[in-house]
Amino acid sequence: MGLKFEVLKTSDGGGRRGVLSLPHGDVQTPVFMPVGTAATVKAVPQDVLETNGASGVGARIILANTYHLYLRPGHELVRRMGGVHKFMGWDRPMLTDSGGFQVFSLSKLRKISDEGVEFRSHLDGSKHFFSPEHSMDVQIALGADVAMVFDECVETPATWERTKQSMGLTHAWAARSKERFEAEKHRVPWFEERGGQTQNLFGIVQGGMYADLRKESAERLVEMEFPGYAIGGLAVGEPREVTREMIARTLEVLPKDKPVYVMGVGYPDEIEEYGKMGVDMMDCVLPTRAARHGLLFMREPGSSTVVRMNIKKKEYAEDQRPIDESCTCRVCARYTRAYLRHLYSSGEALSAVLNSIHNLAFYLDTMERVRGELAG
Amino acid sequence: MGLKFEVLKTSDGGGRRGVLSLPHGDVQTPVFMPVGTAATVKAVPQDVLETNGASGVGARIILANTYHLYLRPGHELVRRMGGVHKFMGWDRPMLTDSGGFQVFSLSKLRKISDEGVEFRSHLDGSKHFFSPEHSMDVQIALGADVAMVFDECVETPATWERTKQSMGLTHAWAARSKERFEAEKHRVPWFEERGGQTQNLFGIVQGGMYADLRKESAERLVEMEFPGYAIGGLAVGEPREVTREMIARTLEVLPKDKPVYVMGVGYPDEIEEYGKMGVDMMDCVLPTRAARHGLLFMREPGSSTVVRMNIKKKEYAEDQRPIDESCTCRVCARYTRAYLRHLYSSGEALSAVLNSIHNLAFYLDTMERVRGELAG
């Protein structure tokens, strides 16, 4: 038993305030999960992650990318180091993706068969093969609290026929992922140390932008019985209404007592909206990636509208205000826009550090507020 | 009145345990000052600087470089932001160099005359002119607690004749620096806010590697009466014995009741040695620059010998020990060599952050121990 999900309260809109208990601790939901690509949330020290945001509670769960850690430093090395938690000095829950998304988006010369995907490393061009079984072996070696089935990410836009065919492959791979996971899950590095607890494998609903396929995919996965369900293949360029519609249609089918995770979203207003619709977990590189490009999230004064400030603009050169006057994060408490602009313009390493801390605090605080509203 | 220097105890070897009181606070001496080039100690957030090291006291005084801040964002902008302390969110003492060293080492097409130095910016090739008067104006606008006279840095090696000639120019520039500083010091951004306190201008002893010239330079500067004296032009490639000899000869001449600052040193064993000889202040980019190249300071187990570990080496790939098992810094408390190697090899931004924090903690702890020995 590695997962318990308790729904404390469900609002009229479907949003639920819950607690997700995992081998490395409890997570208050709905939750935003910062992305720690190569076992590091880029530019942010782990102790800052733990205490970031107004509540000081910080990030309770973070992601790591299977594809990146498989290539470097290698999953067997991470296993020998005791798993990804010990490797990176992070003792709270973690989630790994299946590696599929990066195989499809980063690597070259992919060859997809029913068996799996052959690809070349984006680092050195070396040849690799990922199958559902191999993804499970890699994720078990990494040892995150939550692992994901290996799925095909269909190109976008895709026809109904192409999407249905891809979805079929995804379902077959989900079944194979589950079979391998069940057979091998006791090999997780912390199995004995945590009293025989194991990781939790989540299924992934696909079906592109077709409501009927989303429904079918969700039904098939629910039959397979996973402890949690992800909704994948969204936020890939489609209009916001479509994303919302696909999430809504899928939520109707998924069981109410299992956590639901929408992968790769989104903007601050999106994570708020989906959280209030009943999505329990979300992740996105946006806050950290935008930060490295000098794009800082803030609310327009006296309004709840979220905007992105481009800190490199000349107009901030002598602006003594914090990024967001209503933000209580450690960056806004100490530094001015003028200073942050100077750091960015000068190419200083501290720029990415401080910008990332602010943007993540902004996201964590947004979800903290949403949880408050759902509980209230 | 902007400076008070109290010597609490002097050891047989000449080392003194003291307290330097400056407009922005007290500094326990001897002290190592991290270098915050462009108003940022590269990759290290200010709150970490404040609490770094085993004692948790952190850095009590840091440097900023006049040349860099003059070019970007510009000293008048920094003045309008309230001075460099407010600009960077650092409320403890600071020191600025004169800009001379960077003009001589970084910029192109220098033309030196008795009047000053014409040079081209290393950033955009634009033409600039620094004189002693201009250096003072810039440093007063920046508003560090300690400013430095504008001096010529002679090339190395240099003949006795060339060194003597350069020293003459340095002395003339020191007198002009002092004159301008006295006339303009009330223009420091925090003059009124700090009850009429001003910055403190330190003289710089030059004289190359010639003991007689060092003595002459020190005597000339003491006649000019500065509140503190720096020893410049050392650690520029000469053997360690020569550095030590030049410091020793200069210390003999300098007054015992004024702080002495050796610029640009050094390795951990050097700052310890010079601290025990009677040097009160030192600065160096070495801990942060080495950190960015993956070079980490540590003591050999069971010995006091300081070595530099090259974290990129393959032998650390699965090394679960901290950098230095006797170090109590936050990096050694949390992260393994294997993880730090992974961050460095993967080009992750967190690598420079954590490596810099460790190396600075190592330096700060070294001086904390030296202060303890001098007080004991």
From TrEMBL, chains A, B:
- A Pfam family found in this protein is TGT
> Gene3D superfamilies under this entry?
Queuine tRNA-ribosyltransferase-like
Pathway assignment reads: tRNA modification; tRNA-queuosine biosynthesis
- UniProt keyword Transferase present: yes
Show the segment(s) annotated as RNA binding: 264-270, 288-292
| Keywords, sorted A to Z | Glycosyltransferase, Metal-binding, Queuosine biosynthesis, Transferase, tRNA processing, Zinc
Q: Which residues bind substrate?
A: 97-101, 151, 206, 233
Q: Where does Zn(2+) bind?
A: 327, 329, 332, 358
Q: Provide the cofactor list for this protein.
A: Zn(2+)
A Gene Ontology molecular-function term? tRNA-guanosine(34) queuine transglycosylase activity
Query: Which terms under GO biological process does the entry name?
Result: tRNA queuosine(34) biosynthetic process
Give the record's cofactor note, including how many are bound: Binds 1 zinc ion per subunit.
Q: What's an example GO cellular component term for this entry?
A: cytosol
Q: Which residues form the tRNA-guanine(15) transglycosylase-like domain?
A: 14-373
Any idea what job this protein has?
Catalyzes the base-exchange of a guanine (G) residue with the queuine precursor 7-aminomethyl-7-deazaguanine (PreQ1) at position 34 (anticodon wobble position) in tRNAs with GU(N) anticodons (tRNA-Asp, -Asn, -His and -Tyr). Catalysis occurs through a double-displacement mechanism. The nucleophile active site attacks the C1' of nucleotide 34 to detach the guanine base from the RNA, forming a covalent enzyme-RNA intermediate. The proton acceptor active site deprotonates the incoming PreQ1, allowing a nucleophilic attack on the C1' of the ribose to form the product.
Q: Which family does it belong to?
A: Belongs to the queuine tRNA-ribosyltransferase family.
Can you state the subunit structure given in the record?
A: Homodimer. Within each dimer, one monomer is responsible for RNA recognition and catalysis, while the other monomer binds to the replacement base PreQ1.
Q: What's the protein called, per UniProt?
A: Queuine tRNA-ribosyltransferase
Species per Swiss-Prot/TrEMBL record: Granulicella aggregans
- Its encoding gene is what? tgt
